[in-house]
């Protein structure tokens, strides 16, 4: 589904990603962990199509298409979802209208008719129940005055409505409390299927207690230096990132 080959990127002339290789197949959950400044958010931003970074080498294909060639809207249309670290507040735009627009843009991209009001409401109700969401949230302006937990719940709700093939969750610096972590993990778990995949970027092993990954990768200084199963996350939690550093020094 997702093939990242030797991806290199820089910002303001500073090399940040130094050759990332990663393959994600349908049905898999991958976690990317790593210390602050390793390049995790940079990787997520490049996959989402943000313009601040310059890709200097390598390739990314998504379902056989050159992802880096697509606009952010086209990426969403192809079935990519990125949970934003700091969801924007949009005064005057209700959460409902925001989601309706997003859903219908994706449908349009796929050559499908927009959902009519009845079908849209039905889907909203279904997904709200699934996410155990409070209906009153939807009439409020997007993210305005939402607590951290509410923002997260809303984000995962958006994901449920969009039904992406690949969800990229960057939770690194958002300071989630334990309730928000559970909301994210439970929501994502409910959406898991053999057809979709998740790339969860986190430095909390705690998230992975609830959202159990098939693979764990350590991103360190712009490279994936170690990959393993969920036990690797536990080892990192126990030993910190210093043991990766030590292993790398031994190897060189
Ligand atoms: P992580 O998410 O793993 O903590 P980031 O991808 O946010 O790491 O950052 C990787 C490196 O890129 C850091 O050294 C950071 O200072 C640098 N960086 C990220 N964004 C910018 C930016 N807008 N301008 C300059 N440097 C940046
Ligand atoms: Mg950071
Ligand atoms: Mg980050």
TrEMBL record:
Gene3D superfamilies: P-loop containing nucleotide triphosphate hydrolases. It comes from the Bacteria. SMART domains: AAA. Keywords: ATP-binding, Nucleotide-binding. One of its GO terms (molecular function) is ATP hydrolysis activity. Pfam families: ABC_tran. InterPro entries: AAA+_ATPase (IPR003593), ABC_transporter-like_ATP-bd (IPR003439), FeS-cluster_ATPase_SufC (IPR010230), P-loop_NTPase (IPR027417). Residues 2-246 form the ABC transporter domain. Belongs to the ABC transporter superfamily. Ycf16 family. This is Fe-S cluster assembly ATPase SufC. It comes from Filimonas effusa.
């Amino acid at each position: 589904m997702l093939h990242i080959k030797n991806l290199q990127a820089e910002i303001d002339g500073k090399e940040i990603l130094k050759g990332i290789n990663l393959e994600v197949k349908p049905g898999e959950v991958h976690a990317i962990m790593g210390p602050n400044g390793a390049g995790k958010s940079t990787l997520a931003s490049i996959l989402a199509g943000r313009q601040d970074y310059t890709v200097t080498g390598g390739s990314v294909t998504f379902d056989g298409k050159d992802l880096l060639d697509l606009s952010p809207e086209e990426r969403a249309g192809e079935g990519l979802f990125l949970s934003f670290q700091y969801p924007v507040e949009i005064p005057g735009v209700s959460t409902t209208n925001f989601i309706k627009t997003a859903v219908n843009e994706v449908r349009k991209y796929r050559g499908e008719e927009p959902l009519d009001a009845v079908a849209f409401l039905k889907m909203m109700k279904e997904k709200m129940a699934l996410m155990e969401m409070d209906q009153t949230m939807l009439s409020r302006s997007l993210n305005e005055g939402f607590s951290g937990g509410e923002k997260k719940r809303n984000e995962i709700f958006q994901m449920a409505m969009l039904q992406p093939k690949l969800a990229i969750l960057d939770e690194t610096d958002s300071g989630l409390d334990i309730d928000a972590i559970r909301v994210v993990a439970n929501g994502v778990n409910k959406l898991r299927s053999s057809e979709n995949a998740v790339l969860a970027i986190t430095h909390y092993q705690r998230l992975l207690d609830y959202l159990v990954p098939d693979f764990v990768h350590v991103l360190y200084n712009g490279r994936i230096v170690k990959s393993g199963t969920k036990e690797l996350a536990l080892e990192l939690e126990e030993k910190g990132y210093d043991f990766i550093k030590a292993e790398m020094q031994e190897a060189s």
